Amino acid sequence: MAEPSLIAGFDAGQTHTSCRLSDACSGELLGEGQGPGVCHLAAADGPARFRQALQGSLAQARLHLPHTGTPLLAAGIGASGIEVGSSVQELGRQLAAEALQLPLERVVVTGDERTALRGAMGNHHQGGIVVISGTGTIAVGRNPAGQEHRCSGWGWLLDGAGSATDIGRDGLALSLAMADGRQPDSPLRARIWAGLNVSTGDPQAAQAIKALVVEPGFGAAGFARLAPLVAVAASEGDAGAAAVVERSAQALALMAATICTRLQLNAPRVWPMGGALEHLALLRCRLEASLREYCPGAQLQVPAADACSGALSLARECLEARPR
What pTM, to 2 d.p., does this model score? Predict the structure, then answer.
């Protein structure tokens, strides 16, 4: 039996990295492994973490191969924080080639939203839009001509509309307005403050929350953890919480509508992804309703495959395009 022509697809997020190995010719999946997450390559430890993520997940995936020494021929990598056309993208490509011991021309490095889009599309080329809402948010689309456009994704401090971070932060801000009398009190305040281990009966509670949110370990993830509490309150009829969720749904729909206009997509397929859209049923429901207003004809659909599959398709194209 011929030895497989091995290619790898990586989905490198901030929490963990997945590596999937495939035979380039047959498409047979040969192994999958997990490794540590990545951070922005411009950070002091960014390059080291990027190398560790690729090498660690690849080593785990190779454990499933009958011949662990089978050479790797090409790799596609979708990584958090990679901006297409930037110097960071080129740095990532150079680091990946070195870490995987591959020539530069056999490595593709792009943003993980792009590999998510490729995976969602599968073998169809009509195009569509991926809308991702998790701790952060981003949307990217592709038309049948191969043109792509992205919206949002500029970091939670600047551009988190539609994300779990914004839902949690806006809900918390609303609870503080309730505490000082600017807004009528509601069960939302007690629910959120309990999530922060703060008592509504404590006269210093608001000051404690002000100090808590600026602690180094709180950040975007700290706000995002409050999003489910806001969604539950909204589903129970809390008007303030419902308005917070509605704003986020409209922000996500506007991203899709903008991409639809830029790429001249007609009634596009829209693939919702990310923890917020997966776990907050009300947000997904309101997104679907908002799409009917902002992007008529758009349809939420289940992705054909995941970001690792999208990265594998880039690796396969890279291998097929090499000089013969």
Answer: 0.88
